[in-house]
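Protocol step 4 of 6: record predicted structures for both targets in the notebook before any analysis. Target 1:
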Amino acid sequence: MIPLKLTNLFKQASRFVCTHPKISIIIGIFVLIFIISLIFYFLESNKKVVNVKQKTINLLAITSLGLLITFFIVFKRNDRNANDLENLNMTNTDYVFGIDLSHYQGNINWKKFEQTHHPIEFIFIRATMGTNSKDRKFEEYWNHLKKTNYIIGVYHYYRPNQDPVAQFENFKNQVRLSEGNLIPVLDIEKQSIHGNKKLVEGLKKWLELAEEHFGVKPIIYTGHKFYTSYLQRDFNDYPLWVASYSRKTESLHLRWDFHQFTDKVRIKGIDYPVDGNNFRGSLSNLKSTFCF
């Protein structure tokens, strides 16, 4: 029981560090001051005369301890309401909004998730990676979300140094897409150690197999710079889901369909930040063009 509580506390602290890096640095400084003060306190405590130096050390130790206790109280109070705080300004857009999920989002409190005020319309879920890996949260997320009104889809994380045929077989064996689901997505983010020519050949093979099996052209997900540097010339006729956090949706200067504009959306029921995406079109256009 005690190790479990410690584990939960560590997870909460890790989440706080990720979402509040500047505050975490300040807290770390106070912790360091407190530890150093204690060390000097014990070194000076053997002396009979309490000098100014020791008084200063005592004051620093007491102040740091008080600040740490205050932080702990505030942290625990905020932690109880953490899942209820949503940065709704992130989704104040003129586009159709959606998110994507993988095991990095951890255990989702679905009851709280259903209470979100974000205008989520579509959700992509990572299904597989490489030739033999499956996202450990895929089945849980998929089985729950397919019973909701969200438009859901799946993506495969492509590993450029592995066999594309085996990668597609891995994806095909794990997913079952039906009417109303989003068309499949191929996620490519890294260059091949064998060069761009081999990368392009492998991607084309995976995409051809997917189109033959599912009867649609898959969506390509990638970063803005990666796309313009390595993929645009060979794959400009594929639907594009582009990740670009530094550019506004209106200034991408690309023929894009989906834009992943942030990885910091806070949603009720999810402990960790979520990727936010805009769709370029109406909801009816999303359903008629990008769904089975």
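Target 2:
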Amino acid sequence: MSEAQSVVDRSPKARIGNVFADEFKILQHLSRGDVADTFLAEFIDPPTQVWIKICRAEFSQDRAQAERLLREARAAAAVLHANVLEVLDADIAPEGDVYVVTEAFEGEDLGLLLRRTGRLPWPRVRAIALQIAEGLQAAHEAGVIHRAIKPGNVLLGADDLVKVADFGMVAVEEVTQDREAGTVVLGDAVHFIAPEQALGEAVDQRSDIYSLGVLMYTLLSGRVPFFGRPTQVTMQHKFAAAAALGSVAPEAEIPPLVEALVLKAMSKRREDRYQDMSALVAALQQIDEEGARAGGGKAKAAARKQQPTTDSAMFYSLEALQTALGQTQDPQAQIDILRKMEKALTQLAGGAGARRGRPGSSGSRRASTTPTTTWRPSTSAPSSGRSWYRRTASTPSSRATGR
């Protein structure tokens, strides 16, 4: 780097109004992330508004980091899906800054929403999580792993339209470098990374499934499952059990089936999680907005045929509730947990009507002949965004082109 370059002011405020990379006029500083600052900019010819993420100097000047960030961003450009923020370009500016250009999107990230609301109800979490999962499914089919699913990387627009952003935009040092006590922020990636990622092992699509599970946990309860310095949080991801959602946010009355789904996604061993994103999409669709199995009587009949194995979602729920019961000394909390366990056991048995069924009645004997419902991912599209670039053929079921 030349001496002239070294004295250039690259602070976000200094960039406003200047031309960047000979092509973009910087209009506004939008946010500061773990790796980059995001700006609203205008492409000079033709005049078009875009977002530019300019990586901070410590990442741009580190060759290995710069190459990794560019590689991840260029791979993400292959993912064309209604729930993925489109990457338009990724390069190194003449000034030496690594940058990524994306579509401009009107909305806010989930981190801001959580700070304002505290936590979200299950119906809204379900709708948001389904869109995230469908966007990630398209990315995985294109061979792209996100690696950093967290509130700050999920954007929410009009009518809760979701855009997953910042593929691969995670600071590697984040999981090993201690910070001062009390400065850990909710949106830090270390709170959401999978155990294998925290330990520097190879990641795959099941790592994104774990992160999405932690994100759902956070949206439902209003808090992350583990606290402390980054190194402490890393070890907790690997070895500590997350507190049951029912004990963390009892006032939320999170349904047992929902808690079971979240805990399965957050399994320590990746072999125990949903094995691909399509399986998580299907699991989300099988639970309705009330937290019960979708499909009514047919789903209950199918549930009667199931046994509580370690692969059963209901077993995960009962296991979590039993753990919570042993952790609390509050009599009222114990009563609430016991009621949830009773409800879970009732659902496992196929409903209260099945338990009371009489010979020859419409109870469990007839239900046992009902065929099992086959669940398929929905193909309905969310409302289209207002972005300048949007292709009219893009829907949540769109699949990314190959690299």
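Step 5 preliminary note on target 2. The two ends are 33 Å apart (CA to CA). Residues 11-103 form a domain with the Phosphorylase Kinase; domain 1 fold (CATH 3.30.200.20).
Proceed to step 6 after PI sign-off.
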